[in-house]
Design a protein that fits this description.
By secondary structure, the protein is of the alpha/beta class. The protein has 7 helices and 6 strands; from the N terminus they run H-H-E-H-E-H-E-H-H-E-E-E-H. Helix 3 packs across helix 7. The protein is globular. One of its GO terms (biological process) is hydrogen sulfide biosynthetic process.
Length: 245
């Protein structure tokens, strides 16, 4: 998304354009410090507790301490994800606001279509993601003015245009991606240099971690998100949380 196409209720188009240009190549620390000044607790980090998100959480403690932290618990996360979530609570002394899918919708989906309907087609998979992720995200973002993500351009072909500052017109707020320009090597260098905790699945060949049935380890020659919905084309491997409309 170009700066000229940005629009958000919280900003004028001119302010959004100027801010996007100002922070285009800014270090993650500077971007987070700007979020702290501009939004404080009205912003939140959306975390699935992968490597990028752990870097964001660590950086935010120093540069954006007022920014909230939330997670979407789909009901199908691997146990290793819950383990690192508990480590985050203890180490950083933060509350993790957790949002679950609506019980009735999950019950109806599993009762009528079984437990692996998402493997039948892209439409079926998007239905499952819509129930377990997209709808809870709407509730998680309600009343906020900005959300912070760990999206990086290097992650996949669907994320090559990610900018540090973007307008999320779907949810009517600002989307901030402080690590947009970071490489995987930089993420892991930061984790090791600062002793940041991380999901144990990363050591077992999982560079990207989502729901357990939809995530596998990747081979050395595969891209970072090849293990997510691996039965689909790479062009479709988004759950709907970060699809631009």
């Amino acid at each position: 998304m170009s700066a000229s196409s940005l629009s958000s209720p919280a900003f004028s188009p001119e302010e959004l354009r100027a801010t996007s240009e100002e922070l285009l190549d800014a270090p993650a620390e500077r971007v987070l410090a700007w979020v702290e000044r501009r939004f404080g607790a009205r912003a939140a980090i959306a975390s699935s507790f992968g490597a990028e998100d752990m870097v964001l959480i660590d950086l935010a403690r120093a540069h954006a301490p007022s920014v909230r932290l939330f997670s979407l618990d789909t009901g199908r996360l691997p146990p290793e994800t819950y383990e690192v979530m508990d480590v985050v609570r203890r180490r950083y002394g933060v509350e993790i606001e957790t949002f679950f899918p609506e019980r009735a919708r999950v019950e109806a989906l599993e009762s009528t279509k079984g437990y692996f309907s998402f493997k039948q087609s892209i439409e079926e998979r998007k239905e499952c993601c819509g129930i377990r992720k997209v709808e809870p995200l709407k509730r998680a973002l309600a009343g906020r003015e900005a959300w912070v993500t760990g999206l990086r351009r290097e992650q996949s072909v669907t994320r090559t245009e990610v900018q540090a500052i973007e307008a999320d017109v779907t949810h009517g707020l600002l989307k901030v991606n402080p690590l947009a320009r970071w490489t995987s090597r930089e993420v892991w260098a930061y984790i090791k240099a600062h002793g940041v905790p991380y999901n144990a699945l990363h050591d077992r060949g999982y560079p990207s971690i989502g729901c357990a049935p939809c995530t596998r380890a990747v081979k050395p020659y595969e891209d970072e998100r090849a293990g997510r919905w691996w039965w689909e084309s790479p062009d479709n491997r988004e759950c709907g949380l970060h699809v631009k409309r």
